[in-house]
């Protein structure tokens, strides 16, 4: 009886902390839990846990072979993990196909740009509009005002307004990267995964892309892999450092840059 009455205020506190946790959970978009994948016994990602909040722009850095691309492969369903979970809005993505994951609102950009080179920039945007099945269906789609407006807005956002009628094959490498980001945005993903999107871009294009990513992360979560530290600084968000498949460090750009473990890995001591 003594215990019961003593427990009362404590129980109250517990209740408060549970509801606080729930509030926290509502802000989480992606939760990676103890994720591991082995290729012939080699652990490319090794018991990795991390969370990405809604509307967060997270940068993932790490030396070559750290497991960055493999991590994104597991989030988008391209690679099945050996163990662990990838929770996205209450769904365990490790149990779903790539198509199902796309339909849940996850967009992925691979390292090399993949656009339809023989189609114009406008046509590339058109075919990426959801609910239009296949290229032919979307090209037959009437170019009504709303559709044009949608494409023009997107072209403006990704710096391609002047190039709408050019063939995608004529674009520079950086412009193709922008086109692909725009095509992914057409599908309004809740989570956008970008693997080295500024590779092959000029310094000016990198700056523009940094600003673009900051802007598009206002309405969605964005995970971007990049090792250009000037680019990372310009984005100035939370950084996760991977090394040998494990989480080495996490924090602001200055925090991770000053972390002795990170300095060690990058300077190769
Ligand atoms: P990062 O993107 O950080 O440079 P990756 O994720 O591409 O690194 O690769 C991490 C490690 O896993 C590398 O050593 C790579 O060789 C290995 N790896 C990735 N995919 C496979 C695979 N399908 N089969 C065997 N090894 C792989
Ligand atoms: Mg990679």
Number of helices: 11
Q: The biggest beta sheet, please?
A: 6 strands, mixed
pLDDT averaged residue by residue: 86
- Name the shape in a single word: globular
DSSP helix fraction: 40-55%
| Ligand kinds | adenosine-5'-diphosphate, magnesium ion
Model description:
The structure is a single chain. This protein has 269 residues and is α/β, with parallel strands linked by helices. The protein has a single domain (55-81, 95-267), classed as Rossmann fold. It contains eleven helices and ten strands. The strands form two sheets. A six-stranded mixed β-sheet has the order 6-7-8-3-9-10, sandwiched between helices. β1 and β2 form a beta hairpin. α4 runs parallel beside α7 and α8 (203-216) runs parallel beside α9. The chain is globular. It starts with a helix and ends with a helix. The model is unreliable at 1-23 (pLDDT under 50). The structure holds adenosine-5'-diphosphate (ADP) and magnesium ion. Magnesium ion binds next to α2.
What are the defining features of this structure?
269 residues; globular; 6-stranded mixed β-sheet; Rossmann fold; alpha/beta; 4-stranded antiparallel β-sheet; 43% helix; binds magnesium ion; disordered N terminus; binds adenosine-5'-diphosphate
Short characterization:
This protein has 11 helices and 10 strands. It is of the alpha/beta class.
What is the fold's blueprint, element by element?
Elements: H1 2-26, E1 28-39, E2 42-53, E3 57-61, H2 68-75, E4 83-88, E5 91-92, H3 98-103, E6 106-109, H4 121-127, H5 134-140, H6 145-157, H7 173-186, E7 191-195, H8 203-216, E8 221-225, H9 229-235, E9 239-243, E10 246-251, H10 253-258, H11 260-267
Parallel strand pairs: 3-8, 3-9, 6-7, 7-8
Antiparallel strand pairs: 1-2, 1-4, 4-5, 9-10
Helix pairs in contact: 4-7, 6-7, 8-9
